[in-house]
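Lab meeting prep.
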Amino acid sequence: MHEHVFTRHNVLLQGLTMAPEVGRNEVIRTHEVEPRVAELIRLSVADNTRIAYRSDLDHFLRWGGAIPATPEMVAAYLAAFSETLSVATLQRRIAAISVAHDAGGLPNPCKSILIRSTLNAIKRVRGVAQKEAKPLLKEDLFAILEVMGDCVKDARDRALLLIGFAGAFRRSELVGLDVSDVERVRQGLILHLRKSKTDQLGKGRKIGIPFGRGRHCPVSAIDAWLERSGIVQGAVFRNINRHGHIADSRLSGEGVAIVIRERLRAAGGDPSGFSGHSLRAGFATSASQAGVTSLKIRQQTGHASDAMLARYIRDGELFIDNAAGVLL
């Protein structure tokens, strides 16, 4: 058997650099590896990461870039899109170009001082504040629930909103829940999160969902939905057509955002700026406003540190003991 030389990025980027219509660009060189080894390396990175790399690199190639690229070429690319793409998107594009060069064993233009200086200049002009989803606060959530009906879709959406909020779930985590992940205990529910954005190795995490103290109980809501739908295995949250038929297909992450915006609009609110992340952000902000410690909030959200949670806590505490409120 021949000894194969390879790098992790070689395997991850095989077939990534060339869209069919971009035939004039040079293909990244890759090394042959054993099929099983290649598969294991491929699985070491999330599918979404590979898809993002492929999309970002294709954009660079369509613009007129090539692999290998020079620092001047990459800097010109950054300048061309400095006013139309966000700083975060430009940084992601540079990461994809950088990985492509490392994968081919090529000199990496993205590590040059020219690229660092160009990016820093764009940051200074554009700013680096990220666009954040508006939090769906507890009061907003309760206002939505008050005007909801009792059809099949209402039952699903009620459970979706309450569980998403109480568990501080990312939208991918919420729609990824299966019936087998739901464990009933005396205090409420334990939801077993098998994998998440920050847990690609699948170590798993348990989230406690206690019984609600008022009318809007997340435990009762999910029980009512499962009983109404007749779902006993597979995905908890599924697509429903306009005739009320429950599909076998799992609700998508974008579907969560659509539900939030539709329900806000029905309650007389403005859905602008709300997304599938609004339930998670709303829980963290509402908990902070209620005086819950950052440690307890992190236990529910799964944030690794207070630094990752800081923006929610800052927003939640803006009006707590506000100096202007004392004076005016």
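Slide two material, second protein:
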Amino acid sequence: MVLSCLCIPILIPIWMVLALVIKTGSRGPVLFKQIRIGQAGRPFVLYKLRSMVDGAEEDTGPIWATNPDPRTTRIGRFVRRFGLDETMQVINVIRGEMSLVGPRPERPYFVERLRNQVPNYEKRLLAKPGITGWAQIHTDHKYDVSLDDVKTKVCYDIEYIQRWSLWLDTKILAWTVVAILQIRRIPKRR
């Protein structure tokens, strides 16, 4: 929470510039709000900068994001590339709904389906969800594209919960910065 509060003064000017670019680049709101499932299965409103066209799922219903995703706007591709859309989630951290590090929160639609299809899926709800996580730095896909992706990430999420420490969170945050800037590849666990 303290780290998130310290980030706010740095992020506000970035958000203002991005808000202007998002607003002039496509119709729709700058802020994207979506219900996600948090710790102990409690729903909360997740905040992001909008990176997709307004009403991206009106015709399809809930679907997983892809990379590249045809629903993404021009500025949205840039914002996603550097994870800038996710920075709004420091507000969720300050509100106590998320942590900087933890399993990524999922939408209720997918949680209901994955609970029945992925062994131990429920265990990832033991921890507060995070902006970044152990699964994100160890998998090649930023977005889930198959059940196998979900199963792999759930294994990493459970491992994170079992091994949690302040030192592990620090390492994950550092590796996240490395991954975003693509300074070098993060070593994969075998």
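Talking points for slide two:
The chain has a mean pLDDT of 89.
Residues 2-181 form one domain.
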